[in-house]
């Protein structure tokens, strides 16, 4: 009789586990956006209807720079905030789908101190680093730490940050190579991490690896489709999409949005004298300079020919003018190849600016205003910025 009961319990547990994996797997198939995939994975790890860990972190390997980077962390900042979150979930009877939709409708679910901490983590991917993440990545095996074994990692900044005496790190793979790590613990309820927890987390991590790989391949394909092949910045078609999307956001948030249009002065002279290959070299160098001198939140695009645009979210006209003038001076001082061939013996640009809401309310009108102010700058003698 005891044997039958044991088998029934085992079957029930297996059914529950398969149900969790099926639900998370189904949710991952609903999107190809990397951030949404990461959120679904970590929600599956921390959800009460999922694996039930108190908090979880996801890291991706950056082979190019030889580091492991923190990408997302889900979990409360303290035991007090955990109680409030869990109470709300229970009252609203929120399942996995509800928790995932909460993210899709509002990014505020990731505006936590814990997530910000995770996103700032960068650790070396080498054996000599001696850290938990590096060891997990290099060995390609789960590592479970408890009160006895955690002492070996007492100097690890991540172990210190989590401030817990039990945790588990599980790697996931893409093309038989470790591509990331999920780290989870129970810092609030202090429940022991069992072998079954590690096994289930490993199974979920295997699914996560495939979903993340698909997402990264998709994002690379999208980037290639929307990138100008010569300058490696966004192309004209994607500029139109981005500008409309940012304008919609500006209208919703009632924040200003500015557009800078840039045109190379006397570029035809340069092309006629030195040929289009030399002109292409100038365009590449200028695109790189504009991108490096722009804010991280801005979008630098090639509008066409020798014209570039910069979309500046949350930027009023005064700030846009200061950014444009600083950029104009930087371009004026930069030494471009054979620029002495130009009429003024140096390469310069003219810039026009338009701003929402004061100049116009639609994307096409803002582009038109920007274009007019650009030619106003040209008519003033070039190497000018006009609003």
Q: Which terms would index this structure?
A:
2 domains; five-stranded mixed sheet; Beta-Lactamase; Alpha-Beta Plaits; alpha+beta; six-stranded antiparallel sheet; 387 residues
Description:
By secondary structure, the protein is an alpha+beta fold. The protein has two domains: 2-225, GAF domain (Beta-Lactamase, 2-Layer Sandwich); 236-386, Reverse transcriptase/Diguanylate cyclase domain (Alpha-Beta Plaits, 2-Layer Sandwich). 50% of the residues lie in helices and 18% in strands. The protein has helices spanning 2-28, 34-46, 79-91, 96-105, 113-119, 132-139, 157-162, 195-226, 236-253, 267-274, 276-293, 317-333, 363-379; strands spanning 55-62, 67-74, 122-124, 143-145, 167-174, 177-185, 257-264, 299-304, 307-313, 349-356, 385-386. It has a six-stranded antiparallel beta sheet. A hairpin with a 2-residue loop joins strand 8 and strand 9. The longest helix is centred in the middle third of the chain and has 32 residues, at 195-226. The model has no long low-confidence stretch (mean pLDDT 88).
Number of helices: 13
Major beta sheet, strand line-up: 3-2-1-6-5-4
Taken from the alpha-carbon principal axes, the silhouette is elongated
Number of domains: 2
